[in-house]
Amino acid sequence: MKNFKKLFLLGSLVLSLTLTACGGAKQETKEANAKEEPAQATEKLDDNKIVIGVSPTPHGEIVEGLKPEFEKAGLDVEVVNFDDYVQPNLQLEAGDLDANYFQHKPYLDSFTEERNITNLDVLGFVHIEPMALYSDKYKSVDEIEDGAEIIMPNDPSNGARALILLEDAGLIKLKDKTNLNSTEKDIAENPKNLKFTAMDAPSIAQVYKDSGAAVINSNFAIGQGLDPVNDSIFLESKDSPYANLVAVRKDEKDSPKFKKLIEVLNSDAAKKLIEEKFKGAVIPAFGK
């Protein structure tokens, strides 16, 4: 009888441990599944997540202003602001950004060639920022004196663009105006003996008052409170080839989320935002 009780108790104990083990296994399975669900949700979110590097003005303002449109398209767009023209491309190439929106194609071509970068491509064009000539000393181009100092961007593409602007303003004559790689050496005529000082594009708007005149990119001019239409003494033509673009890595260019991105940036909502907010200082480069 005692042996029977021992066997009964032993059997009950084994059964209890077995049930506990099975229950524990089920609980672990539930916990594992619970842990997997957020990961799957994150993965789904990442499929529509785009981290885009921009210049704060006007690029960042345009993207931020279109946030509701991106959400309607199922996109989660995160904006990262840059105050220089180098890091956005380097970080895109490295994979720290999914896209960038701050430059025109002549600059992208020049940058990638100089640094031997081969995996960046144009997703689409969004707007034109007319480059302009500003002066705190002169009220018109005709007033610019002999020997005056002109500050201009020191990067090759914007430097050439500035020279073309100065020719359009009647201040110089280039050997070949269609050459988008022109430098100071390509100036054929300089009747006013102008002196050229090249410096980083972002800095020019902060110091232009110390010179006779300065050629400033509109994004930096606007960032310093300047109105390219009303404050400049000469404004670039609307036919400029320097439309600002969105760049991505080549192997991701056909991704559905990037197609949605450029669709929103080329939409009627984007056109309306650009025209109403910037009033001619920034011009849509699509829907013409």
TrEMBL record:
UniProt keyword Lipoprotein, yes or no: yes
Family membership: Belongs to the nlpA lipoprotein family.
Signal peptide start and end residues: 1-21
Pfam families referenced in this protein's UniProt entry, alphabetically: Lipoprotein_9 (PF03180)
Keywords (A to Z) from UniProt: Lipoprotein, Membrane, Palmitate, Signal
PANTHER family cross-referenced by the UniProt entry: D-METHIONINE-BINDING LIPOPROTEIN METQ (PTHR30429), METHIONINE-BINDING LIPOPROTEIN METQ (PTHR30429:SF0)
Protein name: Lipoprotein
Membrane topology designation: Lipid-anchor
InterPro entries with a match to the protein in the record: Lipoprotein_NlpA
PROSITE patterns the record matches: PROKAR_LIPOPROTEIN
Native source species: Peptoniphilus ovalis
Subcellular localization(s) per the UniProt record: Membrane
